[in-house]
Amino acid sequence: MTDRMRVDLSAAGNDVRACTDELRSRHEVVRNTDGEWILLRHADVLAAALDHERFSSGVSRYLQIPNGLDGEEHDRYREIIERFLSREALAPFVPVFERVASRLVADLPRHTVLDAVDDIGAVFAVRAQCAWLGWPSELESRLLQWMQDNRSATRSGEYVRKRNVAEQFDEIVRSLILPRRSADGQASDDITSRLCRERVDGRLLTEAELVSILRNWTGGDLGSIALCVGAILAYAARHPELVAKLRHAPDDQVEAVIDEILRLDDPFVSNRRVTTCPVQIGGQDIPKGAIVKLNWTSANRDENIFGSNRFDPEAHAAANLVYGAGKHVCPGRLLASWELRILLQALVATIQTVELVGGQQPERETAPAGGYRRVPVVFT
Questions:
Q1: Is there a contact between 38 and 295 (Cβ–Cβ < 8 Å)?
Q2: Cβ-Cβ contacts under 8 Å for 276 (sequence gap 6 or more)
Q3: How does pLDDT run across 253-312, given as a tens digit for each residue?
Q4: What is the pTM assigned to this prediction?
Q5: Would you give the end-to-end CA distance of the chain in angstroms?
Q6: Which domains does the chain have, with CATH numbers?
Q7: In sequence order, which residues have a C-beta less than 8 Å from that of residue 35 and are 6 or more positions away?
């Protein structure tokens, strides 16, 4: 593939889905203006996600635990993290998340234009995550502002802005873990304190490791949850019959509906890998050391797997890649699924309708992010 055939995905319009849908009709793999190889087909994305020998996760210059690690090192840290994110560990927090969701929904004004992303999704994400981690509620305004700054920096594509915003979040995390790592903090039993007492290879986790883990749990998840809520409510507003159906649906059906909405409109756009040897994908020879992007948004809309992409939660569940695949599948998938389901249930139990505001259509988020930047809705 020559340089003249490289694709600038960020300049292709606000809708990442429309761009990759069009590209996928003609290519299996494309190369962007940064020289990264973008996998578009479900089969190629899944194969790369499952091939841990030829596609390494050690891509970032920063410490990323566990998603930036490979082999046994990844497994050791993943074992620690999954103890906090198992069904048994998260079950006691379900009532906590339900209270957070109920209070938020009760306070939402009716017949007033609200942004599903910032006014609902972001606020719920911050409150739920703080409740889970044992972080003070006074952090809410600071975290909400950080989310705004982070999204703006991501849109800009400017390395310095993105680095500065990342460092701001790391400082927030350090302010929370340092007291818990002191002698006085050892008696605390919140999730952050427990994590500070975890050991790997016989030693306590270092400050850098703790910051990396908590950044992964919060810095990424807060924005992702907000974008997911935007996509879910945009879909619900266009399909009012779904709101009535979900009002009496069991938990597993609600989660299946959410997963299918997110498959069709996946805010988790991509993850990176680096090749450990030369590989060939879609007729393209990719050298060793090349950056490869697994484009989940495109893979989840591949017509070879999902046909006409009609809404069908049951038929499409097995091939859904919203949370990734393989040993690097998102460790927080259960936490995210429960939080999104609990919020949606609180909404449909309280409201009669959710409507998009006339003349104010949802505004697409800009690449490299997916989903919507703003979804103006009115509840009745």
A1: yes
A2: 53, 54, 55, 56, 288
A3: 999 999 999 999 988 899 999 999 999 998 899 999 999 999 999 999 999 999 999 999
A4: 0.94
A5: 53
A6: 3-379 (1.10.630.10)
A7: 6, 290, 291
